[in-house]
Amino acid sequence: MVREAHLKLPLCTGFARIPVSQLALLAALLLCASLIQSQTAPSPAASQGAIVPAANGIELKATINGQGPFDAIFDTGSGNLMTSSLAKRLGLKPEGSVTIAAGGANVPARTVKVDTVNIGGLTMADQWFTVVELPFAKDEQGIFVGAQLIQNLPIRVDFEKQQITFYDQKGFTYSGDGVPVPFRFQDAFFVAEGSVDGIPGLFSIDTGDMFSLSLYAPFVAQHDLVRHYGATIHGYAGEGFGGADTGFYARAHTLQLGSMSVTRPITVLSQDTQGAESSSAIAGNIGLRILKQFTLVFDYPHGKLYLEKNASYGQPDIFNRAGLVLDPDPQNLKVKLVVSGSPAQEAGLAVDDVITLIDGLPPSDDTLQSAFTRPVGTPLRLDVRHQGTTRTVSLILQEIL
Fold this sequence. Notes:
By secondary structure, this protein is mostly beta strands. It has 3 domains: 23-166, Cathepsin D, subunit A, domain 1; 179-309, Beta Barrel (Cathepsin D, subunit A, domain 1); 324-396, Pdz3 Domain (Roll), CATH 2.30.42.10. Helix content is 9%, strand content 43%. The protein has helices at residues 84-89, 147-152, 217-222, 225-229, 288-291, 343-346, 365-371; strands spanning 29-31, 43-44, 50-53, 59-64, 67-74, 81-83, 95-102, 105-119, 122-132, 142-145, 155-158, 163-166, 179-186, 189-196, 199-205, 213-215, 233-240, 243-251, 254-257, 260-263, 266-270, 284-286, 294-299, 304-309, 324-326, 333-338, 354-358, 379-386, 389-396. The protein has a 15-stranded mixed β-sheet that branches. A 6-stranded mixed barrel has the order 4-5-10-6-9-8. A 5-stranded antiparallel β-sheet has the order 25-26-27-28-29. A hairpin with a 4-residue loop joins strand 23 (294-299) and strand 24 (304-309).
C-alpha cells in the first residue's frame, strides 16, 4: 500500500504481512457486477503493451480528468472504486446507488462519472467509479482499479520487477512457461478453478487481499472444515467497509490451481453470514501472500490465468510468532486478537493494547515484516500502551500455527 497514504485497515493479517502502503489495505472490497458491464474499454498507448511501474506489484499512480497524480491500487477483487475525499477534491457529484459486497456486510454506496483515467501508457475513458466513504480515514485520496481492466485487457503482474504490463487484446498470444488455469467471471468474482485438499471449487483471485487463503463460510460449513483442520484460534479476521470479519485460523495442506500447488498456506475459515464471504457460489479467496509467489498473466479474453513461479515460490507462510493478530497500520498498531497460550498472552498483552515500540524502534512496515517472523526462540521487547499507560513487556517467539 502507498507511502503517502495513511489509511487505516480494511483487512488485516495475523501473520507476517507484505510491506505495502496503507492505501492498499483498503482493497478488500468486491463490487457487484452491474457496474462492470457498460464502460468504455481501456486502451494501452502502445500495441506491444504499456509497462507501468507498480510498487509491490499493485501500487500505481494515476491522473484523473487531467489532475493528479493520485495513488491507485490494482485490485483484482474490486471494480472501479474512489475515496469520497478524492471525489470531493475533483468536484465530482455522487449519483445513483449500488451495493458493495464488502468484508463483513453488504454496504450501500453511490457513483461518479470520470471522463479519463491515465495510468502510465494506459487510458480509461468514460468510467463509472463507486465512491466509498471511509469513516476511519476521511481525508485520504485514491482509487482502486481491477475488474474493468481484467475484463478488457490481458495483463501481466510482475512482483519481482514491480511492474504491470497492460496489453491490447488484439493479437495477444501468451508465450511464457506459466501453468494455465481456467479463469472466468462469475457472480461478481473473477474466479479460477482449483481445489483445497482435494475439494474442488471456484476461488476468487484478489490482489487486494492481504491474507493468503480465505475459505468462505458456506464452503467451510459444507465440508466441516473447522473440525477437519482442528482449528482452535478464533476471532477477529480483518475488517472491511461492512465491519469486522470473524473466523478460525488454520493451515490447509495443499491449494491446487491447475498443475500448480501451494503447500501449507495460512487459511482463514470464515464465519461471516453477510457480505462477500457469505457467498455459496465461491469456495474462497486467494490473496496477495499466495499470488506474490508468481508472475501473473491475466488473459480473461481467452479464459486463462497463467502462473509463472518466481523467487518467492515455496517460501513458508509464517503466522505471527508472538501469537497476535494486529491492525497493520504501523502508526496505530493495535492488538485485535491474542492467541490463547501464546507468548503474547503469557506476557500480559490484551485486545486494544497499542504497540508503540518493537525492540526500541517505532513500528514500520519493515519491523512488522521482520519482528514477528524471526526464528523460534528469538526474544522480543515491546512497549505497549493501554488506556494512557505505557509498559514494556518481553516475550520469546514460538511457532503458533
